[in-house]
Write a structure and sequence with these properties.
Helices cover 41% and strands 16% of the residues. With 234 residues, it is α/β, with parallel strands linked by helices.
Length: 234
């Protein structure tokens, strides 16, 4: 039986962590690893009370750096399938079993949770209009550059087969948010298959979200990554 580990890249997630973990299907998940990236709240105490495996960065290193630690620890702990989930309760943890089944049954190497099925649903779920438009534009360009037809490239709920993370050079990626884009381009470059399933849109005050200017930086980083992919430099 495949060993499934859920990794939680956390930063000030104390208000939402318990709800996120409560919905994780423990009958199929063997371990939950939380990596704290220099939080200023009670994230670590909450994680310890919940019985999670906790690792703490000595300072805030960035979202990409957090994921690097998450995946390194999951591989070290013997994971066959690694599920990355934002601990801000924006994504429905109960759907993890479907992510796992698609990989375990051999259909895909990578699974993404797509929040984009219709504009009305995305906006009704609280997604800011500018983020929706940026998501649509960037996803179109990323699909165009790769030949894929994914509905969303920017999900914070993903699952990977162990072989994917052992193969792609994710340690060379950015320590910032563009890490998410880079790792998908790398998976495609190495010939891994990517699937997706729909997930509800849940934006609310406690959920983490980068501001407009960080979003702009992320967008330009995504375009640069797509260009490097097309030129064969990624």
């Amino acid at each position: 039986m495949s060993k499934v580990i859920v990794v939680l890249p956390a930063y000030n997630a104390g208000k939402t962590l318990e709800r996120t973990v409560a919905d994780i299907p423990r009958d199929i998940v063997d371990e939950i690893i939380l990596v704290d990236d220099g939080s200023h709240d009670d994230t670590i105490a909450c994680a310890q009370n919940l019985g999670l495996t906790v690792y703490q960065h000595d300072r805030n290193r960035g979202y990409g750096a957090n994921q690097k630690t998450c995946y390194t620890l999951a591989l070290k702990h013997g994971a066959d399938i690694i599920v990355m989930l934002h601990p801000d309760y924006q994504y429905d943890s109960r759907l993890i079993r479907y992510f796992v089944s698609f990989i375990r049954d051999g259909y895909f190497d990578v699974m993404l949770g797509s929040r984009i099925r219709s504009r009305r649903e995305a906006l009704a779920g609280g997604m800011p209009r500018y983020k929706y438009m940026a998501n649509r534009t960037l996803t179109f360009l990323e699909n165009l550059s790769t030949g894929y037809n994914l509905s969303e490239w920017h999900s914070g709920m993903r699952a990977y087969r162990r072989r994917v993370l052992e193969t792609i050079p994710f340690q060379k990626n950015s320590d910032d948010f563009v890490f998410d884009t880079q790792i998908l381009f790398q998976a495609i470059k190495h010939g891994f298959s990517i699937g997706e399933i729909p997930v509800p849109v849940r934006y609310f005050p406690e959920a983490s979200s980068i501001n407009f200017w960080r979003s702009m930086r992320y967008g330009f980083g995504t375009l640069w990554t797509a260009l490097r992919f097309m030129l064969g430099f990624l």
